[in-house]
Specification:
By secondary structure, the protein is an all-alpha fold. The chain has one domain: Glycosyltransferase (Alpha/alpha barrel). The protein is 53% helix and 0% strand. The chain contains six helices and no strands.
Amino acid sequence: MDIPIDCPQRDERLGWSGDAQVFAYTGSLNANTMNFMKKYIEALRISQNDDGVYPQIAPHVDQIGGENGWSDAGVILVWEMYQQYGGTQIITDNLQAMCDYADYLVETSNGYIRERTGYNDHNAISYLDDSCCNTAQCTYVMNLLSQMCKAIGEEELAF
């Protein structure tokens, strides 16, 4: 196995980024996942669109991307590896790609409200409006990126 996969018992044996970011912390408690995740994060970065969108699946298959929780993995996975293993090189290696994604989130939001929908049946609390959950997810991602910028001395990029 060289990519994190979803549901090996059925036809979802692709490297879904949402599943990877949800399990990254737990996986790193059970085994040294640094090299495995570095390879997957690199696949996300290589597959990133010109507008900064990380794919939902890496290695990339024909898709649009940009769904909160899935495309957010390009930032969340870097954060989890930094938290678990402490090295800042993974942040430095991915900083430009993460900043490009942050720019995409801002540019595709309406007054900093993230109205884009996607897999909200997986991502939202049922009684809340999708934009509320998506905006909260964006805030979380931006906070992680800000903390990583500070960790590598790039305070001017921290927001």
